[in-house]
Amino acid sequence: MKENLYKYILGIADNSLILGQRMGELCGHGPSLETDIACTNLSLDLFGQVRSCYQYAAKILGDDRTEDDIAMLRKERDYLNVLLVEQPNRDFAYVIGRQFLFDVYHHLFLTELQKSKDLTLAAIANKSIKEVSYHLRFSSDWVKRLGDGTEESHARMQEAIDGLWTYTDELFHQTEADKEMVAEGIGVDVTKLKETYYNNVAGVLTEATLQVPELKYFQKGGKQGIHTEHLGYLLAELQYMQRAYPNMEW
Amino acid sequence: MVTEKQHIDEALIPILEQVSDPEIPVLSIMDMGVVRSASIKQGIVYVEITPTYSGCPAMDVIGDDIISAMSQAGYKTEVELILHPAWTTDWITPKGREALEKYGIAAPLDAEADKSVLLEGKQLVKCPQCGSKNTKMVSQFGSTACKAQFQCEDCQEPFDYFKCLK
Ligand SMILES: [Zn+2]
After folding, report:
1. Mutation for testing the B interface, residue in A27, A33, A34 having most B CBs under 10 Å
2. Beta bridge mates, B21
3. DSSP annotation of A208
4. Max alpha carbon distance in chain B (Å)?
5. Does residue A248 sit in helix, strand or coil?
6. Does residue B2 form part of some domain?
């Protein structure tokens, strides 16, 4: 139970940590000042949310590991985020596509997590969802602007959605920890979110004059700690400070 | 269910009012509505604060500032960060809203109006410089996570709008 709760929290937190790091990479590199600030603000929100999660995870462990140890000092195989969030910032369309495909899920997930029997998780969800509503507005807006924009922006937005689509199915896979937490009334049954997710995504894509990809085979593995080659590089940068100057605090 | 009402010991209010939001110095943390409880038990002050936004970097500073203000008043203090009930812009006091406007930040509208401003580009936000509502949103995200960037089409001044959070 304790072990499963710990893993469950990591699954939630790692998604936001890794996505937050990807968005943070755009600091000073956004396509315009406004989008640069927006992306780093999203990143800050996500980091804030995971901090509450890792503090809670540290409390559950009950040993001398801190939130920083858990967030920063695990090895690649111990990160439980989905593959979607670790995909690189190939161009702005990929940044927005990844954010959008995650935001739709994140919003549905947090809506349900607010009902968790675990009051700490419910409170974190209740706090986070207010911020995530803004994220979802921002990314949906940009999918529409790029999709329904110029020939070039349309083509690149479509390419990003096509490229990232293969990582969407994993969002709805249940791990052992998931199943246990659902049974306990603590976790969210992600399988039940799938239909609404694809409907909501299709709604925005259609409005953006984009095609909804048709795909039979999907990538998976992140939830088991088996990642794409991109995560190692991301972690090297994320963990650099903590490893070079041990015991730094957030 | 946790009650949304604050429990603050009257004697501590003047001390807490001296502590300001580090990012908006004209606003006290009391006017901001982030102090959820403050009480004295056996000579020790216990304060609960709640973040405006999850990632708000001001929270650590606010915690330190509370401890230092209390120690000047002769109290030992423990500050705890709580997440529930989640902060909403409705907790900013009328005095706080006034201070925001004077400082050049447009105060949050209600949730409905906020949505139509940010999503449909409706002109409801009043320029804090000249009072005109002929304003446009430049970006949904501004200088900090809690604000959006606006510009006044009459006096041309850019300004921040404090987004509604409910
Ligand atoms: Zn003006």
Report:
1. A34
2. B24
3. T
4. 57
5. coil
6. no
Q: B117 C-alpha to center of ligand 1: Å?
A: 17
- Sorted by where each starts, the structural domains of chain A and their CATH numbers stand as 2-244 (1.20.1260.10)
Q: Please list, residue by residue across B56-91, b when 16 or more beta carbons sit within 10 angstroms of its beta carbon and e when fewer do.
A: bbbbeebbebbbebbeeeebebebebebbbbbbbeb
Q: Is residue B70 part of a domain?
A: yes
Asked if residue B66 is part of any domain, the answer here is: yes
Q: Which CATH number goes with the domain that contains B15?
A: 3.30.300.130
Indicate whether B18 and B73 sit together in one domain. Answer: yes
Partner-chain contact B140 A137, CB within 8 Å: yes
Q: Are B4 and B40 in contact (CB under 8 A)?
A: no
Picking from B66, B91, B116, the residue at the C-terminal end of a domain is: B91
pTM given for the model? 0.88
Task: Give the gap in angstroms from C-alpha A45 to the nearest C-alpha of chain B.
Answer: 5
- pLDDT class of B4 with cuts at 50, 70, 90: low
Calculate mean pLDDT across residues B71-86.
92
Say if residue A31 is preceded by a cis peptide, omega within 30 of 0.
Answer: no
* Gap from A250 CA to chain B (nearest CA, Å): 10
- Could you tell me how many CB contacts below 8 A there are between chain A and chain B? 72
Q: In this predicted structure, what is the pLDDT of residue B2?
A: 43
Whether residue B116 is contained in a domain is answered as yes
Output the tens digit of pLDDT for each of chain A's 250 residues. Answer: 589 999 999 999 999 999 999 999 999 999 988 899 999 999 999 999 999 999 999 999 989 999 999 999 999 999 999 999 999 999 999 999 999 999 999 999 999 999 999 999 999 999 999 899 999 999 999 999 999 999 999 999 999 999 999 999 999 999 999 999 999 999 999 999 999 999 999 999 999 999 999 998 999 999 999 999 999 999 999 999 999 998 877 6
Domain count, chain B: 2
Tell me which of B91, B113, B136 is where a domain ends: B91
Helix (H) or strand (E) holding A17, with range, is helix A2-24
pLDDT at B3 over 60: no
Both B59 and B110 in a single domain? no
Domain that holds residue B144: 104-162
